[in-house]
Design goal:
Strand order of the largest sheet: 2-1-3
Helix content: 40-55%
Shape: globular
Radius of gyration: 20 Å
Structural class: mainly alpha
Strand content: 5-15%
Largest sheet: 3 strands, antiparallel
Distance between the termini: 61 Å
Number of strands: 3
Mean pLDDT: 79
Number of helices: 8
């Protein structure tokens, strides 16, 4: 009888330990796997260095700090206008997001190309004053990160997506959208400092963790 009680206690403790695994615990295991894979497969001859060294700046672009997605903030009062003009930009951003959730580098690159095109076609003739100034700042940053997503390996695509998400979030706040969007947050992105993304669906599909931890994250708010 005593042995049965001891066995029961051990099994209960094991079950609690298994169910207590969080996305942070899982991240530690995935980090070890990704580290060994990167050492074996990341050839610096493509102009990209290891994640710690970031990108080669010979293309004329300078790197953002690893925590730039959280430090780069704009004071923008939310616009609740049902604006259809921003839809092509948001659709291209969503294309990038959905590609990263499935670890699809090529589709993410196509989304980056679509985003650059959407910005180039956007009619900003009605933007004036401070709104025009804020839009131009968003435009410059978003296009640069979209261009990097077009030509980068997937780990660097995700780094640029962090800042791009802040840009698109600010664009929605500045100009409004006809879409219902969800602002989600991943606690593990940006070197554990957290990063946001926008989604067209309520279900969590994490673009920073991809297929290894697709449901890691929370909804911060709904837009529209």
């Amino acid at each position: 009888m005593k042995n049965l009680k001891v066995t029961t206690v051990i099994l209960a403790m094991a079950f609690i330990g298994l169910t207590a695994i969080s996305c942070k615990d899982a991240k530690k295991e995935n980090t070890n796997e990704e580290g060994s894979q990167m050492e074996a497969s990341h050839d610096n001859s493509d102009g990209h260095h290891d994640k710690e060294a970031m990108h080669d700046n010979s293309d004329g672009h300078h790197d953002e700090d690893s925590d730039s997605s959280t430090d780069h903030t704009r004071d923008i009062e939310a616009n609740t206008q049902k604006n259809t003009a921003t839809t092509p930009i948001i659709d291209a951003y969503i294309q990038i997001k959905n590609a990263l959730t499935t670890d699809n580098k090529n589709e993410a690159a196509k989304g980056g190309t679509a985003l650059v095109a959407a910005f180039s076609k956007f009619d900003m003739s009605n933007l004036t004053g401070e709104t025009h100034k804020e839009y131009m700042e968003i435009l410059e940053s978003a296009k640069e990160h979209a261009e990097h997503i077009v030509k980068s390996p997937i780990d660097h695509q995700r780094e640029h997506f962090e800042v791009l998400s802040t840009d698109i979030n600010d664009l929605v706040a500045l100009l409004g959208t006809e879409k219902t969007l969800y602002q989600d947050s991943c606690p593990m992105a940006n070197n554990g400092k957290g990063a946001i993304w926008l989604s067209e669906v309520e279900e969590i599909k994490n673009p920073y963790m991809g297929i290894k931890m697709p449901t890691c994250g929370t909804i911060q708010k709904q837009i529209n």
